[in-house]
């Protein structure tokens, strides 16, 4: 279950408050300057004063209103993220418009702003891009996170609680056969789809060694049934874990920026989604949740593959090798 909005203030890094307060103060100061002294910027940059300065003063009023919005957002950035988003869009379109007129209008053309006006974009827009983008990224990550248990939970205990669509638990199944327990990313992720395709292709070899497959996913089991059936895995035991309790118990955390959006991840994602035609879908679950694969026997983890990036691609046959007797491997890479 994802976090839900409430009247309780959210916890956020203090730097977000400082950034938004600084943006609010700057906007109010700049907007007030334009309203009270509308001709200054034209005089400083050496262009003709406008015939209707009231229009330019309206721009100053709008910028000042943004300043009030940023001050409000500073009290709780995660809750007031729409204000930050609107501000980020405005700070993106301003430089785009400036660049467009520089590219389209030749020097000396009537209506072409002087190069000095680019400093307005620097102070009004460009210096705020990175902090605003990080605030929006962290906001999405915060609201997309499932509710957290107050105390750490052991995998062996949760293996006894969670049941598959067939009514059996990981603990029960692992006492009958070695289990390859595969934790998937959300169903819209192209790497999740690639993983299911790999499992379909490797299933016969895995089961020939006496190991059974169990899938753990974040979606609703009933609505996800057709998704797994599309990969001929509809009969495989699968466990719905929307709150990611099993994921956390198996020490699968939420990915960092580099693990989810690194260049190698983007390249693998392009190959997987476009060249290999796995495609992508809508977000269904925690988009930051990292996947993994584990060999479980007698309710104990005996082998583990914890993805270093979302694009890591395990050899499931190796992870599922029932002859493994060693302690868990902390992580592997593709």
Automatic annotation (TrEMBL):
Indicate the transmembrane segments per the record: 15-34, 54-73, 85-106, 126-143
Q: Which Pfam families match?
A: AhpC-TSA_2 (PF13911)
**Entry coiled-coil feature ranges:** none
Return the InterPro entries for the record: PXL2A/B/C, Thioredoxin-like_sf
Per UniProt, the keywords (alphabetical) are: Membrane, Transmembrane, Transmembrane helix
Protein name as catalogued: AhpC/TSA family protein
């Amino acid at each position: 279950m994802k976090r839900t909005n409430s009247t309780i203030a959210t916890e956020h890094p203090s730097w977000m408050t400082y950034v938004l307060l600084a943006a609010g103060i700057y906007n109010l100061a700049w907007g007030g300057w334009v309203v009270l002294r509308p001709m200054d910027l034209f005089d400083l940059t050496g262009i003709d004063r406008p015939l209707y300065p009231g229009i330019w003063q309206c721009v100053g009023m709008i910028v000042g209103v943004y300043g009030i919005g940023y001050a409000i957002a500073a009290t709780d950035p995660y809750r007031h993220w729409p204000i930050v988003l609107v501000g980020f869009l405005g700070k993106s379109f301003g430089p785009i418009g400036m660049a467009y007129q520089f590219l389209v209008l030749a020097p000396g053309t009537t209506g072409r702003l002087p190069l000095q006006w680019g400093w307005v974009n620097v102070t009004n827009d460009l210096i705020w891009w990175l902090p605003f983008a990080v605030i929006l990224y962290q906001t999405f990550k915060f609201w997309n996170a499932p509710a957290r248990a107050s105390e750490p939970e052991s995998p062996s205990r949760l293996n006894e609680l969670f049941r598959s669509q067939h009514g059996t638990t990981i603990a029960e199944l692992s006492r009958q056969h070695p289990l390859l327990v595969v934790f998937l990313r959300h169903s819209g992720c192209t790497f999740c789809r690639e993983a299911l395709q790999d499992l379909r292709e490797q299933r016969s070899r895995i089961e020939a060694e006496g190991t059974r497959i169990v899938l753990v996913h974040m979606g609703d089991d009933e609505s996800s049934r057709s998704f797994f059936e599309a990969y001929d895995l509809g009969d495989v035991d699968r466990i719905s874990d929307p709150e990611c309790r099993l994921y956390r118990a198996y020490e699968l955390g939420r990915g960092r920026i580099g693990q989810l959006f690194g260049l190698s991840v983007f390249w693998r994602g392009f190959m997987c989604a476009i060249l290999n035609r796995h495609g992508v879908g809508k977000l269904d679950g925690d988009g930051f949740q990292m996947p993994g694969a584990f060999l479980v026997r007698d309710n104990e983890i005996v082998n583990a593959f914890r993805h270093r990036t979302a694009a890591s691609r395990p050899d499931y046959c190796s992870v599922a090798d029932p002859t493994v007797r060693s302690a868990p491997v902390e992580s592997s890479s593709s």
